[in-house]
Amino acid sequence: MKKTIFILSAILIAGFSFGQMPEKFVKAMEPKMAAIDTTMTVQGLTDLANSFERIADAEKNQWLAYYYAAFCNASAGLMVASGGDMMASKADKTDPYADKAEKQLSKAEELMKDNSEVFVVKKMIATLRMIGDPMNRYMTYGPEAAQALETAKKLDANNPRVYLLEAQDKYYTPEQFGGNKDEAKVLFEKSKQLFETFKPATNIHPNWGRGTVTYFLSQYK
Predict the structure, then answer these.
(1) Which of 5, 59, 116, 216 is 20 to 30 A from 183 in CA distance terms?
(2) Distance (Å, rounded) from C-alpha 47 to C-alpha 62?
(3) Does pTM top 0.85 for this prediction?
(4) Is the pLDDT of residue 10 over 60?
(5) Does some domain include residue 2?
(6) What is the C-alpha separation between 53 and 38, in angstroms, rounded?
């Protein structure tokens, strides 16, 4: 009986979630969802961000399109930042991505406040700002990134993307600055465990990151 009630409740919740979104919006979003986890080039992510922004501007009261546009721009910027000397300033190349992502995420947050997923992307943007010029920005954007991730965790302690980003920080940070690949593995495994039970509200709600967790865990074998 309890199982039946749970299933019925899940169906009603899913129906309610979709009911808040115009069918035209959902149909525009659905074909792009697979690309979230499979686009691996700066240009591809930039194009995807532009596509989401066009959808967002057509449906100005839907937070998800602005969220994904911000996520794609932040991801593209982080990809740009990953090349060359990590300690060298490259803010002239990375800040434009952070600027776009920040504006788009602000629009998402206006529509969806106190949301863990929004703060996950806030963390990504703060990290992008920091590594654009780490020597001069660490003291400003390091704490900002950490605070955003902590807020994301408080808003939803079962969000697997929170632990994925926390694990990546531990993985890439030099040991003298607090990095630790063994601790990162524990966090990657926690993210993987949470992904096994995570259910997005709809098929266009955030569900990215599984492949990234799998990749990092494969590096330990």
Answers:
(1) 116
(2) 20
(3) yes
(4) no
(5) no
(6) 19
Cα angle value 137/140/144 (rounded, 5°): 125
Identify how many contiguous H helices and E strands the chain contains and give both numbers: 10, 0
- 25 phi, psi to nearest 5 deg: -65, -50
State pLDDT tens for residues 191-204: 999 999 999 999 99
77 occurs within a structural domain: yes
Tell me the residue range of the domain where 133 lies. Answer: 18-218
Cβ–Cβ < 8 Å for 59, 35: no
Q: Which of 26, 47, 25 is nearest to 36 (CA)?
A: 47
CATH number for the domain harbouring residue 105: 1.25.40
- In three-state secondary structure terms, 188 is helix
In a domain, 11, yes or no: no
Q: Which two tokens stand for residue 5?
A: 């009630």
176: left (phi over 0), alpha (psi -120 to 50) or beta: alpha
Asked whether residue 13 is domain-assigned, the answer is no
The number of folded domains in the chain is 1
First-last CA distance in the chain: 44
Query: In this predicted structure, what is the pLDDT of residue 1?
Result: 45
Which of these, 141, 185, 155, lies nearest to 167 by C-alpha position? 185
What is the Cα–Cα distance from 71 to 49, expressed in whole angstroms? 8
CB count within 10 Å of CB 172 equals 14
Tens of pLDDT along 18-58?
A: 447 899 999 999 999 989 999 999 999 999 999 999 999 99
Residue 8 DSSP one-character state: H
